[in-house]
Amino acid sequence: MKKIRIGVVGYGNVGKGAVKAVTAAPDMELRGIFTRRDPASLETDDCDVAVFPVSAAEKMTSDIDVIILCGGSATDLPEQGPYFASMFNTVDSYDNHTDILKYMEAIGATAINTTAIMAAGWDPGLFSMMRILSESILPDGASYTFWGKGVSQGHSDAIRHIEGVRHAVQYTIPAGSAIDAVRSGARPELSVRDKHLRECFVVAKSGADRASIEKSIKSMPHYFADYDTTVSFIENDEFMAKHSSMPHGGMALRSGNTGENTHVMELSLKLDSNPDFTGSILTVYARAAFRMAGEGLFGVKTVFDVPPAYLSQKDRRQLIKELL
Fold it and tell me: Which of 150, 175, 194, 298 could form a disulfide with 190 if both were Cys (CB 3.0 to 4.6 A apart)?
């Protein structure tokens, strides 16, 4: 069996998760990691694979079937997505909902003879599939998404930029009362404050004004000002012992009616490691990108365009026999 040759761009938390998933897949072969750092300085966690500068990728188009892009949505993917899609089949987990159509158009302009699957994480991604399925089945209804309990990387980073902060982590916590109301079929109207709480743990620098840090966090627009937020100051040892992992999760729900009957559909996730899980999703969509490209299904794609069977290692007959 010819293995799918995979390249991974970026070796941060998601990149490490993708590498784990690729090396565990029997139908895949990791051909290289591409980094903007000095390749010689990259420690690849005992993974025996070549590390290249990002600039080397354009000379390796005949050596790699699919590139998994593991950069961030804010600055990395808007540049890397169109660039790599012009040369390789790609998959990424772009998650900026506001600019998602703009990003799709940029990828579509370059993915002429390649297959580029974008926004293939868990939200957008798996939750998006749940939303389209539930809204189609229950058109008379309302959809809700809750995130957490888990670490918000963006909110944690925002706290770390406050003067006097040494380390920080922020947990997004869904409000149990709001979830219960949705599950009851009541279709509540919920504000952002109604749906989530934000819990922050901060290690302050020596001599820092803790009261000022707490005020800066709670009043930060777009991040904390619209939420009920708690701030706890802890010592560095406790932070490293209790808050160095990256759990996350959430749920996508829809409450709707068919005639006089009420129904609730729900998909929930509880993740020990957000980046590991995201890396695994990217890897199965790399399999799909390879198969779709082999059929000439080029261009920019989303999870809405990928047949679920293309994600699995199993053939069609086995899937039907075991899972249908």
Answer: 194
CB 167 within 8 A of CB 160: yes
**Same domain? 255 vs 294:** no
Tokens of 6: 């995979």
- Assess whether 298 and 231 both reside in one domain: no
Which three-class secondary structure state does DSSP give residue 233?
strand
- Do 132 and 244 have their domain in common? yes
Residue 139 belongs to domain spanning? 128-272
Distances (CA, A) of 57 to 34, 83, 200, 275: 7, 11, 40, 24
pLDDT tens string 166-220: 999 999 999 999 999 999 999 999 999 999 999 999 999 999 999 999 999 999 9
Residues 172 and 219 in one domain: yes
Residues 196 and 85 in one domain: no
Q: What's the token pair of residue 70? A: 């593991």
Bond before 124 cis per omega within 30 degrees: yes
CATH of the domain at 256: 3.30.360.10
Could you give the residue ranges of the DSSP H alpha helices within the chain?
A: 13-24, 76-85, 100-110, 126-137, 153-160, 176-183, 192-195, 210-218, 236-242, 274-294, 316-323
pLDDT tens digits, residue range 79-131?
999 999 999 999 999 998 889 999 999 999 999 999 999 999 999 999 999 99
- Pick the last residue of a domain from 257, 272, 287: 272
